[in-house]
Amino acid sequence: MVELKTDASIDAMYETGQIVAQALTAVRKAAGVGVSLLELDEVARDVLNAAGATSPFLGYRPTFALTPFPAVICASVNDAIVHGIPTRYRLRDGDLVSIDCGAQRGGWAGDSAISFAVGTARPADVRLVETAERALAAGIEAAVVGNRMGDIAHAIGTVCRGAGYGIMEDFGGHGIGRRMHEDPPVPNEGRPGRGLPLRHGMVLAIEPMLIAGGGDAYRTDPDGWTLRTTDGTRAAHTEHTVAITEAGPRVLTARD
């Protein structure tokens, strides 16, 4: 069932979303050559703790997971697409990093992700990340009252496929509110004018996941969490929590 949020609830979700935005900004600033993924996780923990928020990631265990997730961020490097577990790995010049972070406060959740290069960026990685951001922006632009879920999916897929990138199969965005994952699912590819009608009060986590090699397949690491490209090419992941309102889409995790 899709819960429609009140305007007051959306305002409360914005406050939680801003904690996520602050955490991602702090992690991005701290990320540099020689910094470990565990150190980035600590940066995010500090932001959440200072804001009186908890992490919906920490201890999360969906049906596919072998173990509960042990961190407050997902840190996916190079050919890792999503769900990377922070480790002692120290970032190297030219690494492509995707950081996914969530927060829970006052009964409401927020979820967002960014991708960026560390040190000297490869031109191909710059194009990949820019395309992921354009796909996210296109999906958000389509998230308006009167459209349907297929319009969001089509907008994202058109940008990704048009640039020659793969779209991670079986994964996409999701509804969000009192819990991090709620109905409805938000596909990253679809037909316009089809699917669930978009209504005022729906809140969605819209999240393109792009694979540089053009294929859609992935494999799972032995840790049971990290999902990697099967062809070894790099990946990018972007995400915002977005409220659908009569005044247009409201990005609750917008970063300054």
UniProtKB/TrEMBL annotation:
The note on the cofactor says: Binds 2 divalent metal cations per subunit. Has a high-affinity and a low affinity metal-binding site. The true nature of the physiological cofactor is under debate. The enzyme is active with cobalt, zinc, manganese or divalent iron ions. Most likely, methionine aminopeptidases function as mononuclear Fe(2+)-metalloproteases under physiological conditions, and the catalytically relevant metal-binding site has been assigned to the histidine-containing high-affinity site.
| SUPFAM superfamilies hit by this protein | Creatinase/aminopeptidase
The EC number of this protein is: 3.4.11.18
Q: Which Pfam families match?
A: Peptidase_M24 (PF00557)
Its recorded reaction(s) are: Release of N-terminal amino acids, preferentially methionine, from peptides and arylamides
- Cofactor(s) listed in the protein's UniProt record: Co(2+); Zn(2+); Mn(2+); Fe(2+)
Q: Which domain of life is it from?
A: Bacteria
Q: What Gene3D superfamilies would the database entry show?
A: Creatinase/methionine aminopeptidase superfamily
Assigned keywords, A-Z = Aminopeptidase, Hydrolase, Metal-binding, Protease
Which residues are in coiled coils?
Answer: none
**Which residues does a divalent metal cation 1 bind?**
D100, D111, E239
Q: Which positions does UniProt annotate for substrate binding?
A: H83, H181
Report the leader peptide range: none
Q: Where is the Peptidase M24 domain?
A: 12-246
InterPro entries the UniProt entry points to:
Creatinase/aminopeptidase-like, Pept_M24, Pept_M24_MAP, Pept_M24A_MAP1
Known function: Removes the N-terminal methionine from nascent proteins. The N-terminal methionine is often cleaved when the second residue in the primary sequence is small and uncharged (Met-Ala-, Cys, Gly, Pro, Ser, Thr, or Val). Requires deformylation of the N(alpha)-formylated initiator methionine before it can be hydrolyzed.
> Can you name this protein?
Methionine aminopeptidase
